[in-house]
Amino acid sequence: MKLSYGILIAAQALSVMALPSGNKAASSTSVAAVASSTAVATATATSAAPIATPVAGGEEEKNENEVEQAAEFGVAINLGGGDIKTDTTFPPGKVGVLEVEFQNTDARVLRVTENKTPGNAPVGFTFLEPSSYKIELGGGSKNLTLSKVDYISNADNTVDISTGQIGRLCTETNTFVVGAGVGELEFEVDENELTLTVDDMVGEWGIFIPTAAAATPATGAGTGATTPATGTGGATTGTEALQAILDKLLAVLNEN
Questions:
Q1: Is residue 149 part of a domain?
Q2: Which of 104, 117, 179, 248 is the most exposed place for a label (fewest CB within 10 A)?
Q3: Is 247 part of a structural domain of the chain?
Q4: What's the average model confidence in pLDDT over 23-29?
Q5: What residue ranges in the chain does DSSP mark as E strands?
Q6: Residue 53: what pLDDT?
Q7: How far does the signal peptide extend, from start to end residue (predicted)?
Q8: What is the pLDDT of residues 73-117, one digit of tens each?
Q9: Per the domain annotation, does 16 fall within a domain?
Q10: What is the mean pLDDT of residues 38-53?
Q11: pTM attached to this predicted model
């Protein structure tokens, strides 16, 4: 009876060890948090030069308090007043789309120029787009109700922009600066969008991603491939040990 009981216990343990640890995997992969609350460092802003006669863009009202419109680089476009929020998007780049958010009692005129030979990226960062964007605002850029520089990921983009930064060019060093002092940076998960609230949108802006993060996809894939293999190996070793015990017990039973 003792021998039969030992065989039963070993068989049950072997069955348990053979089961996949699905609950652990589910709990580790179900938790995801993407957050970024980083401010951008102080840099010297350039003053907006007078802008030529504006060319109105196609406006589409989402509701009576918000307007969406598309613009072209280098072409002036009207921003309405009346404290109505106006979102202006520009032609998409390799990874995403530049958007300027504006709201104010008095109207303004916006012009954004694409610079395909931008200055230096901040230390530890690389350009997410190969261009930077010079923003001019005719009529004044201070004390607006809302002033934001945004970057929205393209629908087919596979690059993680959640750790990205929107930096302002420091004209003295010809280097973009990120850090504290110029605005409040957030990452909106639902829109897959970086949004920077600033006191003054006038200046030259670049979109960046940490140098380490740019290499993460390849590194992450390698690490992920290694870890499951190690876990599988451990499970296999435990199963083989129990199988060996069970084989010995069966051999003793056969002798008796």
A1: yes
A2: 117
A3: no
A4: 36
A5: 37-41, 59-63, 66-70, 77-79, 85-89, 96-103, 108-115, 125-127, 132-138, 146-153, 165-170, 175-177, 181-188, 193-198, 203-210
A6: 36
A7: 1-18
A8: 999 999 999 999 999 999 999 999 999 999 999 999 999 999 999
A9: no
A10: 36
A11: 0.61
